[in-house]
Amino acid sequence: MYLKSKLFKTTYKLRKVRQIIVGMLTLLIIVLNWTPTTSKTTHNYGEALQKSILFYEAQQAGKLPQWNRVPWRDDATLQDGADVGVDLSGGWLDAGDNVKFNFPMAYSVTTLAWGGIEYYDAYQKSGQLIHLVQNIKWATDYLLNSFVNDQPGEYILYGQVGDGEKDHQWWGAAEVVHYQMARPAYKIDTSCPGTDLAGETSAALASSSILFRQSGDIEYADLLVDKAEKLFDFANTYRGKYSDCLKAAVPFYTSNNGYQDELVWSAIWLHKAKQAQDQNYTDKYLAIAETEYQQMSKPFDYTYQFDDKSYGIYVLLAQATGNIEYQQRTEAWLDYWTIGHEGKRIKYTPGGLAFLVKWGSLPLAANTSFIAFVYSDWLKSQGNYTKAQLIYDFAVGQINYILGENPAQRSYLIGYGKNYPRNPHHRTAHGSWSNSMEEPTDNRNLLIGALVGGPDDLEKWEDDRTDWIRNEVGVGYNAGFTGALAKMYAEFGGEANKAIVFPQLDEPEIYVETQVVAANDSATELNINIINKSAAPAKGIENPVVRLAYDTRYAQENMSISAISQTCSHITSKLVEIESVYYTEVGCEDTVIYPGGDTNYRKQINLKLKLNNLDNNNLGWLNRLSNLFTKPLEVTKISLYDQKKLVWSSPL
Questions:
Q1: How far apart are the C-alpha atoms of 76 and 178, rounded to whole Å?
Q2: What domains are defined for the chain?
Q3: Which of 314, 384, 501, 504 pairs as cysteine with 379 (C-beta 3.0–4.6 A)?
Q4: Average pLDDT taken over every residue of the chain
Q5: CA distances from 636 to 367, 510, 547 (A)
Q6: Among this protein's residues, is 463 annotated catalytic?
């Protein structure tokens, strides 16, 4: 019996050794035939990193900070949360729309913070650390505000502001969306919870705390850890999918993957945050993460994104424990993206893009590349250089593809490189005044730093904002990409621009047109059109007033006026004297003119001027218009005021 057992064990060991040798030879053959896309040209990774971070400033909601560098943005959605008595005015707008979806926002924060932790020195050396920290804090401050009740048993977390259905039916800028529609706030609580939302928010705060602690803001880091632990308790104690309760998130950010991954994800990030905070920490959250991991699905043929943290979990647990299980899961996934796994391999485009699905093909490849860099670095620290190099080469190739090493020789990062997109699917950047995705033809603002969705599997792509699959942008799209760029900067260098230059609009945005309808010896009738096509930034004109200036020779008693309007709520008209200059003043009270549709961006007033004692022809400049009758004209001696502030004036 003993000899049989010993023989069996020996045979089994020999069989295992043979399997390992065959496996290694197979891998060697695959590796020798693997032709990754590597750098062919020199890219300025410092500039690319700088601009990718800048994109988040174009997405800011609320009262913008002084450090915001996007000149065509302004304060927006200041009343968010007013319907529930909470200040939810900050944070990031999700994509090309004006809704704040906290689930992908929190995921983006976690991912950005992870990149900052892994490549802290690169951010610091490139001069981008301050911008990364500022932008992350803008979002974490909002997430803290969203967690309105952190008392056990009474937890309340807001997870969305804005009605996605209504928002997506209107095409206008963030600065004026509040004129167009209500923006309700939606929550989860203990009676109808959301483990995935609470867990991801916990992970966002926990990961960010590590970055802030490293940057020297200990007090804020401690606050984030405290709130992250309470959010984890909320997620763990009251379980359920957030989109089952916060139904307004459907179909935009439905929790299709369930909540188990976010529970593990938040636990492992809390483990790392507590390690950074407390020398006496005893791996409590790591134990929870490993226990809950057992109940988690373990895919290999997709990738890290807002609804699936499995792939990030594999890597973080491998780093934390060295357990072969987590390494195998990570490598099965990365093999699928490179050399193949269990007969499956991701599709590659002719130009070398690892193409997962048509929606967000580039951001998904960038996410995979970022985590591939992280895992490659860890493998090197463990002495596994062959596998590390394979994964590294893959990631380098994907990022360079995005930056321009592709058959079209196009950069898909707006504002960087050659032939980059100019018309992403983004309302505020487009600058439409007529609630039309197609007017004007070209975007009026350049959305510098945004990564677009990308080409299809045959590398077809057009610069067309109506194609939201290939030209969507979003806070989640740039998150992993930014971390990958930090690694590329660490490897290859580059210089950030000393100043980022935005193209200026060379067209009027707010102005007045007049049209003479009729004129005779005693009266002149004209239409006054107040037009607001503002986009840099968009703004509303509240209670607009138009003034027509006259020569002081004409006394007020010789003039009578009347005004009517089908588009203004309430018309006022009067004659006024200011510093010996006489004016006809016409106002649209209780009216806002804003770039939000045909009936909103233009208001018309019909004005009749009658002379009692003087020949109407003495109104010199007006008489010159009388021969034009129906031709619109920007006339002289007219000024437009917004709440008594001059916003436009023709030359005198």
A1: 8
A2: 45-492 (1.50.10.10), 510-649 (2.60.40.710)
A3: 384
A4: 90
A5: 56, 15, 11
A6: yes
